Amino acid sequence: MIDEEKLMPNSITFVGIFSACNHRGLVDKDRKYFETMVNDYNIKPVLQHYGCLIDLPARNGQIDEALDIVSNMPIKPDAVIWRSLLDACRKNNMGLERRKELARQIMESDGDSYSGVYVFLSRVYASANRWDEVGLIRKLMTDKGVTKEPGCSTIEINGVVHEFFAGDTSHAQTKEIYQQLDDVEERLKFVGHVPDSSQAPMVDDLDDEKGHSLRLHNEILAIAFGLLNSKQGIPICIFKNLRVCNDCHNVTKLISRVFNVDIIVRDCIRFHHFRNGSCSCKDYW
């Protein structure tokens, strides 16, 4: 269309093109358009362009190719690029040693101040039930002064915004919310859901994390509150400041089917519309 209309694309135009390829999983087209941008339009790539170029092969399991791009790019990677690599590594179920190696490479590449790599390592060890190492990672974060942005989900009911954090017990309806969560957990177990401990948020009580409790996830708390207070037939709408993890994504799909409710979640990446056990993102985000 750009060629047909004789329009001159700019840097932002190609960010949109790369993002579209990213959401559709079009690896080859993404590379082609990147080369077109550089060679045909003489546009100098910026971090946003490299972020898309790295994220797409990483999501498709091509971690080594993504790392090659990182090592050859003339710009210092930012936290978004590191997060793309870590999320992709987790989503592709790579082995423990491969994930530890990726974390080591990120730290050596001046990414050790990025809290995500520590959270990632913590979850790697949690998934292997190596809780002593989880504790050591958290101590290392404290010693280095590395902090993690706390996950937070909000929901509006009758004009009032309600805010939830992991393991939150501050809400006026806390008792009812956790009773609702008990019901959710039982009904999800009945349809075969097994929580993923590697996706649990970093909280102070490791025993809770080992318990695989859904209540550690702030968006699930918000959804439970929505189930209690939303009118039948009205979608539950959640806003989350971080990216939705795999386990929460799977849980929310199941809740939409088991409870016959539409759930809309806006995370830091995109909108997710859950209905009857599936998501509008087609499990690609």
From TrEMBL:
Keywords: Repeat. GO terms for biological process: mRNA modification. One of its GO terms (cellular component) is cytoplasm. The keyword DNA damage does not apply. InterPro entries: DYW_dom (IPR032867), E2_motif (IPR046849), E_motif (IPR046848), PPR_At4g14850-like_plant (IPR046960), TPR-like_helical_dom_sf (IPR011990). Residues 192-285 form the DYW domain. Belongs to the PPR family. PCMP-E subfamily. Belongs to the PPR family. PCMP-H subfamily. This is Pentatricopeptide repeat-containing protein. It comes from Abeliophyllum distichum.
